[in-house]
Every structure is written in C-alpha cells, then in structure tokens.
Design a protein that fits this description.
This protein has 280 residues and is mainly alpha-helical. It has helices at 3-21, 23-26, 33-46, 52-58, 61-79, 82-94, 97-115, 117-134, 139-154, 162-171, 175-200, 222-240, 245-260, 273-279.
Length: 280
C-alpha cells in the first residue's frame, strides 16, 4: 500500500471510529466507546495501515498504569464510604438549592483534580441523583454541574484526567509546575460554570430549604479511610518530588491493598476497565 493510499485509509477508519463512538446517540450501531475504538484498532491493523508491532508501541502504558493506580485508590475510598459521606456532608450544609449547586461544583471539581474525573463521575452520579430526587429538586442543573465541574477541576493536575496524564508523560512537565499554571484556569472555569448554571436555572433554584438526610446511609470506615488518605498523601508527595507518576500511583494502590485489610477481590470490580481499554 502506497503512503498516500495508506493515509486515506487511515483517515477513513478514524472517521468511521468516531461515527461509531457517537453511534449510541445516533443509533447507527450500538457500540460503546471502548468497543468502537477496539474495532478501529483492528481495522487499522487489518487494512495494513499499521503492523501489530506498531500498534503495541502506540499504546502509552505509563498513562494506563497511572490511571489504574488512581482508580484503585479511588475504589478503596469508595469502599470506605468516603463518597457517601461527602454527598451527605454537602447536602446537610447546603440548606438551599443554590448553595447545593455551589458545594457540588466545588466538591466534584476538587475531587476530580485529585482522583481522575471519570472516577468521580462514576462514584458521585448515583449519590447526586438520590440526593436531588429526595430533595425534590430538578436533575438537569446538578447533573450538568457534576459533569462540567469534573472536567474543569481535572484540568488542575496531571492526574486529573487521562489526557493530562498523556501530556505529563510525554512532556515531562513537573507536577507542581503544571498545577501552578493550570490551577488558576480551573478555578476561573468553575466560577464561570457556577455563574452560568445559577443564572440559567434561576427560576428552578429558588431559596426554599431542601431536605437533608437524617443520617448517612453508609457510615464511613474511619480506619480504612485514614489508611487510604495517608497513602494518597504519600502518593502526592511522590508526585511533587518528581517520581514517576505511574509507578508512584501503582505503588500507592499496592500499599493500600496491603494495609487496608479488605478482601482484594472486590476492589478490581470497581475499576473502570472499559475506560482503560478505550484509552489504550
């Protein structure tokens, strides 16, 4: 296959893959993102655009290892009841729909900067829906707030989203230098998000009080969370010290597995393996 023809075939496969990724919405072919990306990869190799060896080398394994490590640590926070506690804490102190919107944006933005935005969306969405329905509030502003603030907050660090992880590994920008440059942008973005959502939904976000839960549905395991947050602190110290991001995160995940005292069979079930396949 000539170079020009190979480029045409590659562009066609790339376009088809993107069409299939959006196909669930368009109802063209109900493949999810990882399946569509996997099909595109197979077509690239099958049509001679890439050899299997080139496909293997194209995968950024450092990004996948970093994403896996942070996902495992997030899973231990979930098992310890941290996300349930966070949702209850936000609701108890919000009092009004406007303040609930503000607190949700702040909490999901901050957590996404630390623990990967996809994970925060997966962990918090069921809790947010439960809280909003129980408080008899409209769903759209709060779900939009969660999705938007997870993306905006994740901008602030190299571990906030997989795209930043790729940038960090390829550019070798230090963790602290990256955050110093991007944290102001994330903060401004979150402030703009709150202003736009609170104005756009001002008619349904009135001053009425909202219903707060009497007690947490699942009380947090304090020892478990102490161990997990202590290890997470060590992981971020390693990030700031310039250690390899991927293996620092994976070492932290392994240390939590050793110290947490939980059955490790339940932990991998909480990792979003579809996300790892998609980014591979």
């Amino acid at each position: 296959m000539t170079g020009a023809r190979k480029e045409v075939v590659a562009i066609a496969i790339f376009a088809l893959t993107y069409l299939l990724i959006s196909g669930r919405r368009l109802k063209v072919l109900p493949l999810n993102r990882p399946a569509a990306a996997l099909l595109g990869t197979v077509l690239m190799v099958g049509c001679g655009v890439m050899t299997p060896e080139q496909a293997y080398r194209a995968v950024d394994y450092d990004t996948l290892v970093l994403l896996l490590g942070m996902s495992l640590i997030s899973a231990y926070l979930f098992l310890g009841g941290f996300f349930d506690w966070t949702a209850d804490w936000v609701l108890k102190r919000a009092k009004t729909p406007q303040r609930l919107l503000l607190y949700l944006i702040f909490a999901s933005g901050l957590l996404s900067a630390m623990l990967v935005n996809d994970t925060i969306c997966i962990m918090l969405t069921p809790l947010v829906v439960t809280v909003v329905v129980r408080g008899k509030l409209p769903l759209p502003p709060y779900l939009l707030a969660l999705a938007m603030s997870a993306n905006l907050g994740s901008v602030a660090t190299l571990v906030g989203n997989p795209q930043n992880m790729i940038i960090g590994h390829l550019s070798k920008i230090p963790f602290l230098r990256f955050s110093a440059s991007l944290l102001p942008a994330a903060a401004v973005g979150l402030a703009m998000e709150y202003a736009i959502l609170s104005f756009g939904y001002r008619r349904v976000l009135g001053p009425a009080a909202i219903q707060a839960p009497a007690s947490s549905a699942r009380p947090p395991d304090h020892r478990h969370l102490l161990v997990t947050f202590s290890v997470l602190g060590l992981v971020f110290v390693g990030f700031l010290a310039g250690l390899n991001l991927a293996w620092t995160a994976l070492a932290g995940a392994a240390l939590v597995m050793v110290l947490a005292g939980r059955d490790t069979h339940e932990v991998p079930k909480l990792v979003d393996w579809h996300l790892l396949l998609f980014f591979a």
